[in-house]
Write a structure and sequence with these properties.
mainly alpha, two-stranded antiparallel sheet
Length: 153
């Protein structure tokens, strides 16, 4: 097992999140789907805050440089900075988890944890794209295809 490749997979995944966020104009962060729920900015904040939840549970020392994003203070710069920040902490959690063979509070193993994180965040990327589309601000086709270009992210 090449641990570095798993960490790189996480880093690619986070760059794809940031690629999408960077393509969204600030004023569209408040877009919401027809079925209500979270708006675009809140989906990104939720991704970050769930990362913090896992850090708190599995390795609290990695929380020291992290801040929870509250609904009242969401803006693009904050989201970009904090998603990058929490991604680094999750990379450290994964690294430690691979070395120890486990992530505290998660079963069965660190590879499954990585899969869980990517699945969860990718679900929210889909929700973000839906919010934008239903609000009349569909993501540009180039960006949509770019989300799948793992080798260049």
């Amino acid at each position: 097992m090449n641990v570095r490749e798993f960490i790189e997979t996480w880093e690619i995944h986070n760059r794809i999140n940031l690629y999408l966020l960077n393509a969204i104009p600030d004023e569209y962060l408040s877009d919401i789907s027809a079925s209500k729920g979270r708006n675009v900015g809140e989906h990104f904040a939720h991704i970050h805050n769930v990362r913090l939840m896992w850090l708190k549970s599995a390795e609290p020392l990695l929380l020291s440089d992290q801040i929870k994003i509250e609904k009242t203070i969401i803006n693009k710069r904050l989201l970009i900075d904090e998603l990058a920040n929490s991604a680094k902490a999750i990379a450290a959690l994964l690294q430690n988890g691979f070395e120890q063979g486990k992530i505290k509070g998660f079963k069965p193993h660190p590879i499954a944890f990585l899969g869980y994180l990517i699945a969860h965040e990718s679900h929210h990327r889909g929700q973000i794209i839906l919010c934008l589309k239903q609000s009349g601000h569909p993501v540009d086709k180039k960006i949509q295809f770019g989300l799948w270009e793992c080798g260049s992210r």
